[in-house]
Amino acid sequence: MPDQDLPPSIFHMLERNVGKKIRVILDPAYGFEGTLTAVTYEPSGIWLSDAEAIVLRSTIAQPIPQVASREERSELFLHLNSVQRIEVLHPTTPRR
Q1: Signed CA dihedral, 12, 36, 59, 28: sign only
Q2: N or C: which end of the chain has fewer CB within 10 A?
Q3: Is it true that the peptide bond before 43 is cis, omega within 30 degrees of 0?
Q4: What is the pLDDT of residues 26-79, one digit of tens each?
Q5: By C-alpha distance, which of 7, 73, 19 is closest to 46?
Q6: Partners of 53 in the beta sheet?
Q7: Which of 2-6, 49-53, 86-90 has the lowest mean pLDDT?
């Protein structure tokens, strides 16, 4: 196994979520959403398909960042050194 700065548990967690829709936050106001298609060890990173660039905004009244805008992307590679947070997005079902 190649030298890694990240523990193997990070890669195992990511590999379990291949095929799911995720949100990757690069800084407090910018990130990407897309389907996790692959995890690479060298260089350590992830591949997203059907990706969208997102801009996040928060206010004093709404301190939890919300998606303010989206821009279509196709496929992209994100190096894990530049990632602050990864969220797995679950499909929402309407309540009755």
Answers
A1: positive
A2: C
A3: yes
A4: 998 999 999 999 999 989 999 999 999 999 999 999 888 899 999 998 899 999
A5: 19
A6: 32, 71
A7: 2-6
β-pair partners for 24: 32, 86
Query: Per residue, what are the HEC states of the chain?
Result: CCCCCCCHHHHHHHHHCCCCEEEEEEECCEEEEEEEEEEECCCCEEEEEEEEEEEEECCCCCCCCEEEEEEECCCEEEEHHHCCEEEECCCCCCCC
CA 77 to chain centre: 11
Tokens, residue 79: 């190096």
The answer to whether residues 66 and 54 touch, using CB atoms and an 8 Å cutoff, is no
- Per-residue pLDDT at 11 exceeds 90: no
